[in-house]
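Contributing new records

If you add data, match the layout below exactly. Sequence lines come first and carry their own label; structure lines follow with theirs. Keep one chain per record. Anything else will be rejected by the validation script.
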Amino acid sequence: VASKSQRQRIAVLAPLGIYAACMVFQMYLGHPNETRVVAFFAMGIPLLVALAAWWSWQPKVPTQQPPTPWPVWPLDTMTLLADPLADQAVAAIVGQQAVDGALTRSGLARLDQASQCMQQWRYNGELSAWAPADADPSVSAALRDYLAQGSALPAWADAAKVARAEALFMVEGPLSCTLLFCASLPQCYVLPWLAKVLQISGQLDAHTESRMRKTAAMVFPVMMRGGLMDPKGSGVAQVLKVRMVHATIRHLILRGDPAMVRGTVPPGAAADRQTGMQQAMMNHGWDVTAGGLPCNQVDLAYTLLTFSYIFLKGMRTMGLGLPREDEEAYLHTWNVMGHVLGVRPELMAHTMDEATALFENMQAWGRTHLVSPDVRPALGRALMGVMARSIRVPFVRRIPVQMTQWLIGSQASYDIGVDLHVPLLTRLLFGAGRFAAACIDSTVRLVIPGFSLSRMLCRVIGYHMLSQFLLDQTRAIGLPDHLLDPLRSTVAGWSEDARAPRWLNALEDRLTTRGSWTSAAVAASQPARATF
């Protein structure tokens, strides 16, 4: 039996819900088309005013919770810790270095050979018995020792929690893509010295879109079904490749073993004057005292949180928060991935409260360890530029900027230079859309539990991000061939939202495409492919 307060709420919101349904009907099926625009303003504004007035009359009951005592994370110490397992593997591969620390020609050749060998890492179950053919013995031995230790999952890995997180990813995949590009990647740029590593390793401007694809190429194998726990999955294999890339970056920038290098590494010319990214990293120099080691434990743990915690926080921000069990299963799964990546257990968060405290602590610490020149604004604006160029309609090109500002907050937006001016029309469109969606959702849920117009709109954004950056056949995502078919099958499963009513899915189709998302993206890319 409904309580008195519930009956009063229904009595107020039911008429407004009927009115809102009539407005949606006119916006979707009104004829002529001008009727749809008129309905939005003529019916939407009174509805919003009524809902705002009702909301202001609700009693606000303050909730007070005792502060939770969090540990004091020794972040300064952690910046001097890297990844001994991967660093030792790279040191064994490159061998003896030149007098000035630069890699010799033979060392670089062995490093290139190791990169080619790692492309043979396909499935998790094959790693323990992997043996390269026709490889330098030192390269083969180093990689096999690395795999023997690095491919083992932690004893605390919970298969049930990982399966729960994988199921969540299957349901919320389009939203995870929206949050990946508009929240996780921008937050990666907030730590100044982490952003500096990205700048040195060639991830600015023209390489921004490539970084977006490479990031997705790691996320999908980890979160697809069986990615971490199944021998036929590929998540562990992909993460171990990324771990070796981090160790290689450290070795090239420091021109030596990270465990031994301290103080300042002066800029200098590479011994063999290699061209391209390798030379850029070896020539740049680095201040270990000020910034710690490149790709250190703080950088790794912070990046891990941008993929786990920031996704969950973004879902809350959009009014689509998940049950506590789902949130903790998602954090757990990424902690398993973090173990494979070389992150220390003391820098892992297991609850949302702990993740919030650790993430905010890291950001506050990063803002006290600035680097000159500050490369963060260039990274942030390059990311916004790539997303804006993917949108054809001029007055909504700044929507990704508005979305990012909303999801990451004003301080982080300022840090990475995306506190950009947005045209008034775009601001009004974004703000009115957010407010209207929230009001309609709260009203319709009285009749249809789980209804979410906000969810549908975020799915639409996720579809267009997927089509532009991941499914376009003219641009390689960077995944091995054996992962492309599972990726496309996963995305095809997102074509219809099982939680939404049929009419809302029909509206989504009008804003995305009819039928399979994968086949539509492939078909859309074919003409462009023929022009090259």
